[in-house]
């Protein structure tokens, strides 16, 4: 499996989602976070778009979202998040286990995801995620194995204040199992707002300097119970 090619394709797909402003329907607004959705073209479910402002530099924000060291400590939707293979400095394969949600009606799921960060001009970073198969990590009886179609984050400087970031998140997760679509559609928007707020809270706790590699990039740009 050509993981690097898949990673590039996923990043391009997330960028295309970010540029496509047509057909979105706002399904929830709360605490300055907006969640929109439209039918996914890849499975029988929704593609979600979550956007808002994060009071942090884009380079800090993308490093924070890309690195897994503290993920479970701030992301309350997860019970485990582990890197299981490093392909290169910008591309990882991770195993994720989610918490149950929707008052327990959606049981924990696990995912094997290819995660990739792509640096764009203008200090924009794209962090893409897509589920893949990986030797040694087949589905087990402990969790339903979910599937993430191209999903990810777009971090860019806020035009009004470049020290702040505009964060746009795209989610199109196939939960698998025997869930009714209505259960997912009812619970997902609130969960996505909660995730966004968790990012803000996590950044306050885990402040970290920009690594040397990222500093150079910035300078260059300037010139789930089973059911």
Automatic annotation (TrEMBL):
Any GO BP: lipid transport
Transmembrane parts of this sequence: none
Span of domain START: 22-208
Gene Ontology MF terms: lipid binding
Gene3D superfamilies for the chain: 3.30.530.20
Entry function: May be involved in the intracellular transport of sterols or other lipids. May bind cholesterol or other sterols.
InterPro entries: StAR-like, StARD5/6, START-like_dom_sf, START_lipid-bd_dom
Species per Swiss-Prot/TrEMBL record: Rattus norvegicus
Any Pfam family the entry gives: START
Protein name stated in the entry: StAR-related lipid transfer domain containing protein 6
Alphabetical list of SMART domains matching this protein: START
Top-level taxon in the UniProt lineage: Eukaryota
Keywords from the named record: Lipid transport, Lipid-binding, Transport
């Amino acid at each position: 499996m050509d993981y690097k090619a898949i990673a590039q394709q996923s990043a391009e797909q997330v960028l295309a989602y970010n540029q496509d402003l047509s057909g979105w329907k706002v399904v929830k607004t709360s605490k300055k976070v907006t969640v929109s959705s439209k039918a996914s073209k890849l499975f029988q479910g929704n593609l979600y778009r979550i956007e808002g402002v994060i009071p942090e530099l884009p380079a800090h924000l993308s490093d924070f979202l890309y690195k897994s060291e503290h993920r479970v400590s701030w992301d309350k939707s997860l019970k485990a998040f582990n890197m299981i293979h490093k392909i290169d400095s910008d591309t990882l394969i991770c195993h994720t286990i989610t918490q149950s949600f929707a008052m327990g009606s959606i049981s924990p799921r696990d995912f094997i995801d290819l995660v990739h960060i792509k640096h764009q001009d203008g200090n924009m970073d794209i962090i893409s995620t897509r589920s893949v198969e990986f030797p040694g990590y087949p589905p087990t009886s402990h969790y339903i194995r979910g599937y993430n179609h191209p999903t990810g984050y777009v971090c860019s400087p806020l035009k009004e204040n470049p020290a702040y970031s505009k964060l746009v998140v795209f989610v199109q997760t196939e939960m698998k199992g025997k869930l009714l679509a209505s259960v997912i559609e009812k619970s997902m928007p609130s969960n996505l707002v909660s995730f966004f707020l968790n990012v803000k809270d996590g950044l306050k706790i885990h402040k970290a300097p920009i690594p040397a590699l990222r500093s150079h990039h910035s300078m260059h740009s300037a010139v789930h119970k089973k059911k």
